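Worked example 4.2. Below are the chains of a multi-component assembly; read each line carefully before continuing.
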Amino acid sequence: MSGGIAVETLSEAEARTELARLSKEIARANTAYHGEDTPEISDADYDALKARNAAIEAAFPHLKRSDSPSEQVGASPSEAFSKVTHEQRMLSLGNAFDAGEVAEFDARIRRYLGLGPEAPLTYTSEPKIDGLSLSLRYENGRLIQAATRGDGQVGENVTANARTIDDIPERISGAPALLEVRGEVYMSHADFAALNVRQTERGAKTFANPRNAAAGSLRQLDATITQARPLRFFAYAWGALSEPLAETQMGAIDRLGALGFVTNDMTRLCDGPKEMLAHYETIEQARATLGYDIDGVVYKVNDLGLQARLGYRSTTPRWAVAHKFPAELAWTRLEAIDIQVGRTGALSPVARLAPVTVGGVVVSNATLHNEDYIAGRDNKGMEIRDGKDIRVGDWVQVYRAGDVIPKIADVDLTKRPEGAAPYEFPTVCPECGSDATREEGDAIRRCTGGLICPAQAVEKLKHFVSRAAFDIEGLGAKQVEMFHADDILPVREPADIFTLRARDAENVSKLAKRDGWGVTSAANLFQAIEDKREIEMSRLLFALGIRHVGEVAAQDLAQHYQSWEALTSALDTARPAALARRAADEAADAERRAAAEDGRRARVSEARARAFAARNVPDESAAIWDDLIAADGIGPVMALSLSDAFANPDERGAIDRLVAELRSILPPETRADDSPVAGKTVVFTGSLEKMTRAEAKARAESLGAKVSGSVSAKTDLLVAGPGAGSKAVKAAELGIETIDEDGWLSLIGDA
DNA sequence: GTGCCTCGAGTTCC
DNA sequence: CTCGAGGCAC
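Applying the procedure described above to all three chains together yields the following structure tokens:
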């Protein structure tokens, strides 16, 4: 439907007619896609329509219509809203599930700040709204942008839709010149019920719960639909600011209220865990009468100065926690257990359930984790579910962990059908028939088929094109499966992606002629692939899907070696040492076992040394291996996994074929060192008076410094408080710069 | 050797 | 989002 005549040969009149037709079709597809009806066309067809529209507009710019689909808020279902990078990350919260964990939260904060158990410490306590987080950016009192949370770093621009929400003011006065207000968009129970009545009357799909209704409404391409939906907004936090809002959390919330935002009237100040738990009870009891969904209570350290000192862990602030309500439970029947095979060959059991509503969502699948989990044991062999195993036909109790992932909490043995047998976990891969084995001490059984296994091959390819890896537009999971199964234009390994265009050109059955594809969509895909012949080294490394080498490890490795050649030659040289290391590990294990058997003390290090020496590793190889495992974040397990992948002829062949297709592998960007301590190795010694040790370390690391515990030749700076002993002496001997706590604070500009 | 903390991998539903 | 496991500090 999208193909039509080649754009270059269109007459002006034809182009005009075609643009009108496309505009209409796309508008109809938009309405259909976004909830008013069931989708009528596939995403690929939709993208093809948009692509053709864009191509014609490019060829005849003067014919572009005022209602051109390319001008509308959304571009396509997959890239409907433009991306917005949050100036301040939008983080999630850590969780607490009982009184003990709340007390632990308080204790952790006191420890970190160096406060005794009796020192006064105030928290705010407020209901946790079950909606969607939104960040509103105000400049000089005007709303200029609204963005969803997304992955925390990058969200979606939903400004036009946010402007239709009554609780969100267009203008505010008396605010800082720059103010990002954060809060939750939600729908009340009453509005949700009324909306579903209207949906039913119109024969449209109803929403499963208020949260989904709010999410669906906010993500409308057509802001007039959002306007018709009764969305509300509670403000409870902030992002980037040109000046502080207040000195306390409570003060800031009051300030937001004064600026015209709706804040939650159940927010209270509490003097410690006891009062926090009491307020939790109050909120839990009010839950049914609030008129909107909440899923817990949030506690935050009230003093903003202390919040700043506490700072953040990788994904959560240290100064706040969400105390979640107990998860909703539901009983249903387990109809079957299926096995999925992941990219590393992991066999993952999935429960197929008789559909049941849990927490407002119909659940029909649940994860069963692994073999032991089904049998009723955890990874340490301890009983879970009182040791009850799970059998097909059982009545099982389902909950959604973190309100998302369905899991099985319990089994009703009284309802177990007669003759139900314990589940027998397969020992061969259900996809390829290879042996599926379990390493000692490992919880997961893995298919040994490697790339012979079609499931592993496809999953590996999906990983290769995924967002954090090659991120090829128009080549998602679905397309990868299609190409992998294709006999005419097969993609069986990463290099095949890059030869796709050339092979297509030589083929009679062109991609552009296929169902769901058109000239432009095929051309767009080929272009997207061409664009990725230039790729960052860390992405390439991550994309290979080597076990234990994730996004972060790939970045660490790129940082360490700087170039692809340096990395590969290091791995090649280090191979003998890697093999010797494995032999030593195995010898150590064997010795431990043998010793346990005949009840003597194990002589592990000797066995280890003997096995290593027997390998006669060249000095150069050993040196490179040592350098590899000394790299930041890289240990022997990762190093061995890497070494294996690059030494395996099949895998290495695929890697080399891929690299040959690439134009350039970009070295990592050297981190901008805008702080005076970036890249320096710092040691703290003696007592610190204005901050605790943990705090000093976290602060230094956030400025790009590496904090070490002992002084060595690698140390750049020693921060010595009163009572500094041997470390200060050693630093003096080595001629290392030494400063005191105040010197450190003024150095980093925190005086 | 032990105990954090972070990373990797797998998963559900829309 | 959660669990298991690797890395690293103590």
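Take a moment to check your reading of the output against the notes. Residues 564-597 of chain A form the longest helix (34 residues). Chain A has a mean pLDDT of 84.
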